[in-house]
Amino acid sequence: MNDLEKHSFYSFLAIYLVSSLFFVLLSSFWYYSSLKSSLENETYYKLTHLADSISGKIINAQMKEISLSLPNEEGYEYVLIPVDETLKYKVGYYEENGYKVLVSGSPQEHLNIAYVIVKTKEYFKDLAKLKADVATRAGLVFLAIFFISFVLAKLFMRPVHKRIEQIEEFIQDVSHELNTPITALKMSASRAIKKEVYDKKILTNISISTKQLETIYNSLTYLNFSDKQEESIELALGDVVNRVVKYYSELSEAKGVKIEVDIDQASLNIIESRAELLISNLLSNAIKYSMPESTIYITLQEGLFIIKDEGVGIAKDKLEAIFELYSRDSQIAGGFGVGLNIVKQICDTYKIKVQVTSTLGKGSEFKLLF
Predict the structure, then answer these.
(1) By Cβ atoms counted within 10 A, which residue in 18, 32, 264, 280 is the most buried?
(2) Is the pTM here over 0.85, yes or no?
(3) What is residue 159's predicted lDDT score, i.e. its pLDDT?
(4) Angle at 337 between CA 333 and CA 341, to 5 degrees
């Protein structure tokens, strides 16, 4: 991962873990508070039950005039307070010196006993166990969340990493594509200056290079500013096709590729610049992947546009991917993987159906149905 990806990865991980830790701590606090309250009630009722049980035995012993036999409850202590002894507590439930204490007046002075005091440390032992249990569970839950968050961060970064790779490749391809016509322009201009005679070959090279730069510019402009509001018009597509063919004639001639055109009357409600970009991308792609001394066939009828080349072709298993952004089926020719994506975007916008057939080594055919 590069620095940007690492920053994104650790930022996502940190935010996820901090928010998860807060949630775990909050949930643990609620869980602990609930169980603590339950334990508190359980201790109170246990002490109350024991005090009432002792008081009942005291009352029963006096009424039946039998000896007093008191229960021995493990973990619980009790004290009987005679009537004539001053009690430092009021009747009630207390916490003192590590004990939970219940003072009960239920003996009602039977056997001369005024109060029963019952106390225990079990509450605090159970509370310590509860704290340890909640802390252990919270720790295990957070470890599980940490593992899940790490996996999620990886999954989250996968498409980001892929897109960054595509962008990096796109920038490299654009740089390469720009470098070729710029170098040609510099060389042609330098030759023209040295010769002081502007022959046709030099001017043709300059023209081709300029048009390559303009094609790249138009594609990049569409990708970044395609939401610009323009009005569609009923456009004669034949005029657009002829303009585009003429525009690329120098490039096709330089490569030795012949373009045969069969045009009938056809119209489409579309923005003119979009129509030119659509035909331009299809034709420039055909020229780019055509073999020298081959032919490109263009047919236009009402509701149908066909462009067929005799180029390298496209593998059947890659036909669906050719319209994806930054997708490049072949490394034989240049390009940066946006031309056919632009074609697909324009076709989708104007409800134009695209059909592609291709055979490796024989060429490709694009049909637009509108």
Answers:
(1) 280
(2) no
(3) 74
(4) 130
Residue linked to tokens 């202590």:
77
HEC string of the chain equals: CCHHHHHHHHHHHHHHHHHHHHHHHHHHHHHHHHHHHHHHHHHHHHHHHHHHHHHHHHHHHHHHCCCCCCCCCCCEEEEEEECCCCCCCCCEEEEECCEEEEEECCCCCHHHEEEEEEEECHHHHHHHHHHHHHHHHHHHHHHHHHHHHHHHHHHHHHHHHHHHHHHHHHHHHHHHHHHHHHHHHHHHHHHHHHHCCCCHHHHHHHHHHHHHHHHHHHHHHHHHHCCCCCCCEEEEHHHHHHHHHHHCHHHHHHHCCEEEEEECCCEEEECHHHHHHHHHHHHHHHHHHECCCCEEEEEEECCEEEEECCECCCCHHHCCCCCCCCCCCCCCCCCCCCHHHHHHHHHHHCCCEEEEEEECCCEEEEEEEC
**Structure-token pair, residue 162:** 């892929």
Q: Which amino acid is residue 120, in one-letter code?
A: T
**84: phi then psi, degrees, rounded to nearest 5:** -85, 5
78 φ, ψ to 5°? -145, 155
Instruction: Summarize pLDDT for 24-61 with one digit per residue, the tens.
Output: 899 999 999 999 999 999 999 999 999 999 999 999 88
CA distance 294 to 162: 37
Q: How do residues 167-194 score in pLDDT, each as one tens digit?
A: 666 666 666 566 666 776 677 666 666 6
Q: Per-residue pLDDT for 354 more than 90?
A: yes
Mean pLDDT of 322-349: 74
**Dist CA 249 CA 237 (whole Å):** 18
